[in-house]
Write a structure and sequence with these properties.
The complex is a heterodimer of chains A (505) and B (475). Chain A is built from 19 helices and 2 strands. Chain A is mostly helical. In chain A, β1 and β2 form a beta hairpin. In chain A, α7 runs antiparallel to α9 and α12 runs antiparallel to α13. The C terminus of chain A is likely disordered. In chain B, a hairpin with a 4-residue loop joins β1 and β2. The mean pLDDT of chain B is 91. The chains are: A mainly alpha (505), B mainly alpha (475).
Chain lengths: 505, 475
């Protein structure tokens, strides 16, 4: 694989698919789906390649590509992946790959345009996770956000126009706020070295003054925090989930929410280590608000998509809590939970979407005993619920455990409180499972059909398999993630602190 | 007096062209005048060639009244391109104007000529004369559809505010002359060297900036813009948006950077406040608009606020950013307004309501508005994004973080109101879904404008290097 631009290929596969789709006739549905499946399976295959060829012993950024773009500003097309990026790229390719199959069943009109926007979005997401240039990071990010607008606006359900406008504006707002912090770093770094560049690896070498780091950390934290979404800027997220069509909800909750956390890791923590040390205790409290506020609201929501939406924002609280620990195991757990939660929540939205497409309602009180009519869906939903509540054997358990162990080292009080969040998750997940799928069947739902064909079942099987594989053999991912986490955590804690914190393995 | 004709050869070509059109208009029998527009377009292309061939002859002539340098060449190319787009749009719009005469095309070329002289003015005298020349042509053009009361109202409003602004500018110039003893920019710069900042100078500076704010439609002389944009014939609205604004900024750059650059610490706050107020007013007032030309007028006021950020920054990055912004702005405006003209020719309406479901009726018009409006809003990967990035970077570099925050917030506001239009175009169902016909040549033109906007956003390197290199001559 030496010399092959694998990261560019991962980004370009969906983009080329999208361009190919423009020239396909609207009614050639088979061809349209074929192109979408091909494009996303190329990305999936290449990203699995990435996972297995990443040199864990060497660590750092690998598969690097660099081409000058705007020399006068020091912007370059600079890609590279460390362990954290690799995990996120693999997550993205699984979600989009299954998302294409879910749309196969769910999307009935303007199919061609749907896939065009979906592929455009995902190539932006791949770009964000692999960019080592701050401007390209931002460009790819907007490339991922803008297609959300038509995707929710055209194919969404109730309240979609309000939801899509709110989501697009919030997401862009967060990003431009972070952009101010990025520009400030660019000029300050340029003044220090005399070499103006947006290259993250170059800026990372500079140690800014402590006071400066503390100030600039704020716009970055706020900007990316909106995307996470960190309370109190989370309101765009559940409403966006609820209105979006299934595949878009999957991508949105599974991947887009991770962009904010990734930005915090890569840019805020990676470039401003002392700022991170200063602010993380504050963030830890916000995480608790996220966990409990999100969880409580999820308990009271009767609309299943809203429930999962708030549950996502509660789980992102755990992710951030893991990041605030600033030790190996906590940060590793956070990245692994980003992966596990991405897969789990994609599964959740796909399942709810499947039921909604037939029943045209998502209210838990409208249903009862669906397991009699759709056993496959019921079992999948149960597995998803177990994963979400952190039952052993599934990926979420491992990652949450790691976060709690990490948090006990740094913030014992927070950790003790946060553990109770799991009970809340279990409460609403199990309650939804009971109300919707178990109890007596209702006559009005006699006509519902289970997922029977290969295309219908395939995405759920893939997602559940991923959850199980990572759950039973987490090392497959953790070893790679760890190769990215160790240098980051070392940098933040300073080299002296390394000796006191035992490595993970 | 030294006269170097080669330096203003392109201007001579354009002047000759305008008079030729006037003459040909008399000779031609009654009927359509589209061939005159084609003559104008070809002539403008010749002028661009002449300009490029003589671009390396730089310096001042006509006793320092006229200057040719990288900046003036850049702006002249920009104005000639604007002229070509406007002439093309005008010949598409010809049937919509009763009693249409060929002088319409000649007047457009005279306006282009005036803007070219503005780009080269190196002295308050030549600046003022060119400015009035431009104003007179635009007064006539703005109220050209004489039987429509909105158009006449537009012309009248434009005339009255314009005359007031000119008076303010002239008054300011006299103060600056009193303070420095010269009207030539480089002489003023020398005179200010080592001189204490006085109240006398401050009055002159404030009045000159306020006077120039009329052309760029920034606060406080912005009130004319919405009515005039809405009332004027659409090609002229585009001329006001793309051409007149650029002309205003080349003046501001020469005055603020070359003449008054040394006293920047005294005016930076003043310009920053005007910029912030203009940004806030333009973008917030654009939100409730129902007419697309009126919305673009308010958005144009917002754009003036962005461009003023580059003036406030007062560095090479800022002035390069202004030029790049105007370049992307030209393509966004050309695409958007050509689409508006084609739509108006078919539907007879400019109300945003009428655009409902346009994507089903004409994908190319919908795509053009999508790209044009989002480029104006500054969404990547379109040209407008790179331009705004440069402007925000320029003010962050000078430590004006608060101004950058205002700029960023208003970029989101701009996204909001443009998305409202795009929502109607893409998400809503049309009331009648008869397709709108777009002729092949219009289609080709729209495609190339859209590609230009995309190229400026995806591969801006060569263009930004160019503007950054020429921006240095101002300081």
């Amino acid at each position: 694989m030496e010399g092959f631009p694998i990261l560019s290929a991962i980004i370009l596969a969906p983009l080329l698919g999208c361009i190919a789709l423009i020239f396909v006739k609207e009614n050639a549905i088979g061809l349209i789906r074929g192109i979408a499946v091909t494009a996303t399976s190329i990305s999936l295959a290449l990203s699995l390649c990435l996972l297995f060829t990443y040199d864990k012993a060497k660590g750092g950024y690998q598969f690097v590509e660099k081409i000058d773009w705007v020399r006068s500003l020091g912007i370059s097309y600079h890609l590279g992946a460390d362990g954290i990026s690799v995990a996120m790229v693999v997550l993205t390719s699984f979600v989009i790959f299954t998302g294409v199959f879910v749309s196969w069943v769910g999307i009935k009109h303007r199919i061609k345009e749907h896939y065009i926007f979906l592929l455009l979005l995902v190539s932006g997401v791949f770009g964000v996770f692999t960019s080592l240039d701050l401007i390209f990071f931002y460009l790819f990010y907007e490339l991922a956000v803008i297609p959300m607008y038509p995707l929710i606006g055209i194919w969404g359900s109730a309240n979609r126009e309000y939801a899509t406008m709110k989501l697009t504006l919030y997401l862009s707002f967060g990003a431009v706020f972070a952009l101010i912090g990025i520009l400030s770093m660019y000029f300050t770094a340029g003044q220090i070295t005399g070499n103006y560049t947006f290259d993250m690896t170059q800026i990372a070498k500079i140690s800014f003054a402590k006071n400066y780091q503390i100030w600039v950390f704020l716009p970055l934290l706020f900007g990316f925090g909106v995307l996470v979404p960190l309370a109190p800027f989370h309101s765009w997220s559940p409403i966006g989930h609820a209105a979006a069509p299934s595949a878009v909800s999957m991508l949105h909750a599974g991947v887009l929410m991770k962009l904010g956390a990734y930005g915090i890791i890569r840019i805020a923590m990676g470039l401003l280590p002392e700022g991170a040390q200063f602010w993380m205790p504050v963030v830890a409290w916000l995480c608790l608000i996220n966990i409990f506020y999100g969880g409580m609201v999820a308990m009271h929501r009767k609309d299943m998509k809203f429930m999962i939406g708030y549950s996502s924002s509660s789980h992102m609280g755990y992710v951030l809590l893991g990041l605030t620990t600033l030790n190996y195991i906590g940060v590793n757990g956070a990245v692994l939970l980003m992966f596990a939660h991405g897969i789990m929540t994609a599964l959740a939205f796909a399942l709810v979407g499947f039921v909604y497409d037939q029943a045209h309602t998502r209210m838990t009180y409208d249903f009862s005993g669906l397991a009699h009519k759709m056993p496959f869906i019921a079992v999948s939903f149960a597995i998803m619920g177990f994963a979400s509540s952190g039952l052993p054997g599934l990926a979420n358990f491992v990652s949450e455990l790691m976060i709690f162990i990490g948090a006990f080292k740094t913030y014992p009080l927070h950790a003790v409180i946060a553990v109770f969040g799991i009970i809340i998750t279990a409460t609403y997940m199990l309650r939804a499972l009971r109300n919707v799928f178990f109890c007596e069947p209702m006559p009005e739902w006699e006509h519902l059909k289970d997922a029977t064909t290969f295309v219908q079942r395939f995405p759920y099987v893939v997602l559940i398999l991923v959850l199980l594989i990572v759950g039973f053999y987490p090392a497959i991912l953790v070893d790679v993630i760890n190769a990215g986490v160790v240098p980051l955590v070392d940098k933040i804690n300073g080299v002296s602190a390394v000796a006191s914190t035992a490595p993970l393995h | 007096m030294d006269v170097n004709i080669q330096m203003f050869l392109p201007e001579i070509v354009v002047a000759f062209l305008a008079f030729a059109i006037l003459a040909a208009d008399l000779l031609k029998p009654r009927g359509e005048r589209k061939s005159l527009a084609r003559l104008g377009i070809i002539g403008s292309l010749v002028a661009i060639n002449v300009l490029v061939l003589t671009a390396d002859i730089s310096g001042t002539t006509l006793s320092g009244l006229f200057i040719q340098d990288g900046v003036s060449v850049f702006f002249k190319i920009l104005f000639l391109l604007t002229g070509i787009f406007i002439l093309y749009m005008a010949q598409e719009y010809e049937e919509k104007i009763k009693n249409f005469k060929g002088e319409f095309y000649a007047l457009i070329l005279f306006a282009v000529l005036a803007m070219m002289f503005l780009a080269s003015s190196n002295d308050f005298i030549s600046l003022y004369v060119s400015l009035e020349f431009l104003a007179v042509t635009l007064y006539i053009l703005a109220c050209y559809t004489k039987e429509e009361s909105v158009s006449v109202e537009a012309g009248l409003k434009y005339l009255i505010t314009g005359a007031l602004a000119s008076g303010v500018l002239l008054y300011g110039i006299t103060y600056l002359y009193g303070a420095t003893g010269s009207t030539e920019f480089s002489q003023i710069k020398l005179a200010l060297n080592g001189k204490n900042f006085s109240g006398f100078l401050a009055i002159g500076l404030i009045l000159v900036v306020l006077g120039l704010s009329f052309k760029i439609a920034s606060i406080p002389f912005h009130v004319w813009a919405p009515d005039v944009y809405q009332g004027a014939p659409t090609p002229i609205t585009a001329l006001l948006a793309a051409g007149s604004k650029a002309a205003g900024f080349v003046m501001l750059m020469r005055v603020m950077f070359t003449a008054l650059g040394s006293i920047r610490p005294h005016w930076v706050l003043f310009i920053s406040v005007i910029s912030a107020l203009t940004l806030l007013f333009g973008n917030l007032a654009a939100m409730p608009q129902k007419n697309i030309k009126r919305m673009l007028a308010y958005a144009g006021i917002g754009s003036a606020g962005y461009l003023l950020m580059g003036i406030a920054a007062g560095n090479t990055l800022g002035s390069g950013a202004i030029m790049f912004y105007l370049l992307t702005y030209l393509f966004a405006i050309a695409g958007t307004f050509l689409a508006i003209v084609i739509f108006y020719n078919s539907e007879g309406s400019d109300s945003i309501d009428a655009y409902t479901g346009l994507s089903r009726r004409s994908p190319i018009l919908a795509a053009t508005l999508f790209i044009g409006l989002l480029s104006l809003a500054g969404v990547p990967p379109l040209g407008g994004f790179i331009a705004k990035l440069y402007l925000i970077a320029a003010v962050v570099k000078e430590g004006l973080i608060w101004l950058a925050v205002v700029g960023v917030l208003m970029a989101i506001a701009a996204m909001y109101y443009f998305l409202l239009v795009i929502k109607r175009i893409y998400l809503w169902q049309p009331k009648n879904d008869t397709p709108i016909k777009v002729s092949p040549i219009n289609k080709a033109l729209l495609y190339s404008i859209n590609i230009a906007t995309l190229v400026l956003g995806i591969y801006p390197g060569p263009f930004t290097d160019w503007v950054m290199a020429i921006a240095k001559v101002l300081f």
